[in-house]
Structures are given as C-alpha cells and as structure tokens.
C-alpha cells in the first residue's frame, strides 16, 4: 500500500509540477530591440488599419523623454493619449515631428497621416507606423545602430545614459513651437535610505534625470512633493509601474539592474 502511494506521488512530481512550471505566468524577457516597444491600437483596427508599433529605442536616441511626454503631450501609458489620425495631420502628437518638414540630424522626418487621396506608393508610407505583423524596411537597424554604443546587461542592452554623456548620441532637448524657453533650475542630487538591511542606499541624481526628463515629467504627476521624504513608495509600488516604475519597468533600465540605483557603498 505504501509502495503504491509512493509511485503515485512520484508520478505527480514528475508530470504535474513540470507542467505547472511550463504554463506559469512568468513574463518572457523581451529581446533587446523589443524592450520599450509599444503597440498602439486605440483606433487602428476600428478603421481597418494595422496597429501601430512604436519603437522607443530609436526615438530616445533622437529626442529626450521630456520633449515627447511634456512638450508634445504623450501620456506615460500606451493608449492613454487617444491619438487620432486627424490630430497627427494637424501637427499634434506624432505630427509634431512626422510632418515632412521637421529636421533631425539635418534630415526631414517622414510625414505621417494625411486625409488626401494617396497613390499606391504613398500608401506604403502608412506601413512605416502601422507595422504590426509586417516586415517593413526601416531607416535604422537596431544592431547596426547600437553597435558603437556602450553596453548594459538589461533592457535594450545599451547604456543610454553613458551614450549621451560620451556624445555618441545627441538627443534633441527642445522642439520649436512646443518647448518653453525658460527651463527650471536643476536641484541637487541626494541619497535615499534602503529599507532592507544590508542593501546599499539609493543615490538619486537630479542632474542625470533632468538631462532626459526635465523636472516637469516627474513633478507633480508622478512625485507629488518637491521635498525629499514627501513621497512614499516601495519596491512593490515600483514594480507595479508607480513612482520610479513609471519608467523603470517598461522603458528606462529595468528593476533587475539593482546596482544602477542602489549605488552607495554599505559601511560596516
């Protein structure tokens, strides 16, 4: 009887547990060129269009985050902005740059939406953005573009911060007609105490964050206060996309890269 029970238990261990592991909810780690990718489908399929695939990696190499998320007005979550083709055509959102006139690196950025009747060749332009499930030629190959950039273990596999510091990328910090002319004063860096004993304290650099975000991207929408200690959050909150997690879950270097934040040495 005992032997029979043992055999049954062994079969459960061998067959049931692996099956659970294979069908678990563990999230697949994205490939380097997929990290930060956003699929936009508020209206596309409604109008029989393919959903838009937005690649953060190439846009972040050309523009700072604040240009898009503060000056132009994109929400921080996919689908939150409710972009329409008519808005783009009038020069809002994507149309702030994708109008055939705005220059980047001395070249005009291709125009996006248009309500005029397009030729067959012109219609191919729609696939530049409405590209989900399609093989659409791009002006930039991820691996060729990132080959000379300093490497990182996580996210895109690229240290974007160091790339900007070294001058290997030069993201635009303003956009004519959208960016205010009087930037806010950059505050000093500070450290935050880790809540787990033995974990290095966090060094938060206002200087590094304002290069990309300015002040307005974080305050007051993400961090309500402007004084140290006014905002309270935990790693659980961050992993759920709150506070630091608004960026460091989906686009900026991910939470797995602990040492990028917990950088202050622990003294005995």
Brief synopsis:
With 268 residues, the protein is mainly alpha-helical. It contains nine helices and six strands; from the N terminus they run H-E-E-H-H-H-E-E-H-H-H-E-E-H-H.
Pick out its properties.
Cytochrome C3, 268 residues, mainly alpha, 2 domains
Helix/strand structural class: mainly alpha
Q: What is the level 1 CATH name of the largest domain?
A: Alpha Beta
Name of the CATH architecture of the largest domain? Alpha-Beta Complex
What best-fitting shape do the alpha-carbon axes yield?
globular
- Portion in helices: 25-40%
In the predicted model, the low-confidence regions spanning at least 5 consecutive residues are 1-24
Which H/E pattern describes the elements? Answer: HEEHHHEEHHHEEHH
Number of domains: 2
CATH topology value of the largest domain: Cytochrome C3
> Which percent range describes the beta-strand content?
5-15%
Total strands: 6
Can you list the strand order of the major beta sheet? 1-2
Q: Figure out the total of helices.
A: 9
Kindly state the mean pLDDT as a whole number? 85
Distance between the termini: 57 Å
- Radius of gyration over all CA atoms, rounded: 23 Å
Largest sheet: 2 strands, antiparallel
The CATH superfamily of the largest domain appears as Cytochrome C3
């Amino acid at each position: 009887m005992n032997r029979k029970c043992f055999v049954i238990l062994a079969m459960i261990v061998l067959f049931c547990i692996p099956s659970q592991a294979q069908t678990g909810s563990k999230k697949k780690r994205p490939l380097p060129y997929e990290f930060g990718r956003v699929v936009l489908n508020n209206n596309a399929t409604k109008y029989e269009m393919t959903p838009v695939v937005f690649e953060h990696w190439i846009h972040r190499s050309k523009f700072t985050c604040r240009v898009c998320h503060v000056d132009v007005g994109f929400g921080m979550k996919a689908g939150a902005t409710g972009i329409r083709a008519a808005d783009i055509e009038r020069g809002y959102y994507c149309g702030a740059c994708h109008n055939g006139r705005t220059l980047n690196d001395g070249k005009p950025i291709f125009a996006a939406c248009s309500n005029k009747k397009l030729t067959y060749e012109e219609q191919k332009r729609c696939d530049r953005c409405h590209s989900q499930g399609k093989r659409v030629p791009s002006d930039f190959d991820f691996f060729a573009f990132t080959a000379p950039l300093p490497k990182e273990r996580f996210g895109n596999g690229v240290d974007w911060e160091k790339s900007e510091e070294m001058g290997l990328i030069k993201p635009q910090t303003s956009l004519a007609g959208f960016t205010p002319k009087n930037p806010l004063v950059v505050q000093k860096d500070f450290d935050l105490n880790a809540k787990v004993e033995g974990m290095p304290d966090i060094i938060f650099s206002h200087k590094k964050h304002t290069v990309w975000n300015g002040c307005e991207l974080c305050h007051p929408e993400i961090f309500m206060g402007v004084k140290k200690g006014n905002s309270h959050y935990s790693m659980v909150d961050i992993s759920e996309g709150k506070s630091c997690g608004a960026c460091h879950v989906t686009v900026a270097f991910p939470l797995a890269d602990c040492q990028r934040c917990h950088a202050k040495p622990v003294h005995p």
